[in-house]
Amino acid sequence: MGEHGSQSGLLYESIGGTYSATRCEDPRIRAEIHSAIGDAERVVNVGAGTGNYEPADRLVVAVEPSTAMVSQRVGRSPLVVRALADALPLRHGSFDAALAILTVHHWSDASAGLAEMGRVAARQVVFFYEPLQTHGFWALDYFPEARQLPSELNPPGEAAIRAVLQVDDVRTVMVPADCQDGFGAAYWQRPAAYLDPVVQAGMSWLALLSDEVLRRGSQRLRDDLDSGAWDARYGELRHQDIFDGGYRIALCGSGSRS
User: Fold this and answer.
1) Where on the phi/psi map is residue 246: left (φ > 0), alpha (ψ -120 to 50), or beta?
2) Which of 10, 102, 163, 165 sits at a 20 to 30 Å CA gap from 126?
3) CB 242 within 8 A of CB 174
4) Which of 68, 67, 101 is nearest to 85 (CA)?
């Protein structure tokens, strides 16, 4: 339930036109990602999308196939390569770190893409979501059809990353109640946000649903908010400051597994 820099053909050409309206960097998540990147001077951002979370104080090359995403890269690195993750047109070992931000679940061949990250960079930083955790998120009670989307049927979690890369550490990224980046579970404490068409358009797991499914789920959520049923089920969330939505950062070492 994260969305960034799709590698699946024309996906973000059709749904990504207003992506930058709700998908902004959250400073707390940015700090965690930049900590994971460390002192890497040359960074390649694979499935880069609009460029959120790219460090601005070093050389960054973005790899992104979607013109809709590239056109929204305001104030980001101008070095953009139009390519897919599983066939990076980059030299072996040409970067200190390879970055992937909420994108691996959209790649047509996640294992090949992760292997390519290991080929071109000494270290790999993967911001992903753990499906066993994320697929229990309350919003899916209203839009259960999202679990059947291609990107959600078998999304790569920690085990899939470990099968390809040498994982040194996996850090949990807690989502703040006022998260500024509108990814899948960002509005866990602000349920009315999932009724906003602009918010829905910025989340692939909602934007890819049919109009009828989206309308039906939105009406169910609206009714439960109006009646108090949502608060009866999930109201304890309103008293939390942070939430584990299944988001993780994998810090990986040199190269791919043999």
Assistant:
1) left
2) 10
3) yes
4) 101
Query: Can you tell me whether residue 248 is helix, strand or coil?
Result: strand
CB contact at 8 A, 249 and 36: yes
Confidence of residue 13 (pLDDT cuts 50, 70, 90): very low
Measure CA 111 to chain center: 17
Asked if 99 contacts 5 with a C-beta cutoff of 8 angstroms, the reply is no
In which element (H, E) is residue 122 found? strand 121-129
Rounded distance between C-alpha atoms, residue 105 and residue 146, angstroms: 14
> In which residue are the tokens 């919003």 written?
139
Separation CA 179–CA 148 (nearest Å): 26
Gap between the Cα atoms of 145 and 104, Å rounded:
21
Cβ proximity of 119 and 88 under 8 Å: yes
Instruction: Return d(Cα 193, Cα 230) in angstroms, integer.
Output: 13
